[in-house]
Amino acid sequence: MSTPSATDPTQLEKFHTLSSGFETAMLVTHSADGELRARPMAIAQVDANCRVWFLTMEESGKVHEVDVDQRVNVTCQRDRDLFISLTGRGRLERDRAKVEELWKEEYKVWFPEGKDDPQLVLIAIEPEEGEYWDQQGIKKLKYLFESAKALATGTRPHIEEGEQHGRVRL
User: Fold this and answer.
1) CA torsion angle for 98, 103, 109, 115 (degrees, to 10)?
2) Which of 4, 18, 141, 150 is most buried as measured by Cβ atoms within 10 A of its Cβ?
3) Using an 8 Å Cβ cutoff, are 120 and 54 in contact?
């Protein structure tokens, strides 16, 4: 598998476009005993450089986990057509202006005191590497054809690197 370089703007743009289309993600952190923990999170924003922002309460387990071990993973899936994985470092932010910028009224479900709740903090995921599997639209038809051909011939399906699958240093 070829890995595009960090300066490959096409792959960076593609990864950003794909990741910006998700509303929720699984945030994977490391617990105090080193075990992996995953939980669904609403994505507040994906920056142009693929930094991902989440809002949470300061006294949550994920905040303590990121405080101890910054290594995190963010995964997203849409049906059977689109998957992304982002590996990076989690950073806690207490920037009230950024909370104001990212705030959406539907967040009151999780934060009843609103955007001014002093316990509300941000988790910024600083991306290091991203990977995607994109089988949307015509790519899905290509994949189904390649899968049927592989099944009939006892081989593996051909996947177009950079189009259906890609890996990018961020």
Assistant:
1) 60
2) 18
3) no
Residue 35, judged by CB atoms within 10 A of its CB (0-12, 13-18, 19+), counts as: exposed
- What are the Cα distances from residue 125, in Å, to 104, 153, 156, 158? 19, 43, 35, 33
**What is the pTM for the complete model shown?**
0.85
The pLDDT tens digits along the chain (170 residues) read 444 444 577 889 999 999 999 999 999 999 989 899 999 999 999 999 999 999 999 999 999 999 999 999 999 999 989 999 999 999 999 999 999 999 999 999 999 999 999 999 999 999 999 999 998 767 657 666 677 777 888 888 777 777 788 899 99
Apex 138 CA angle, 134 and 141, nearest 5? 90
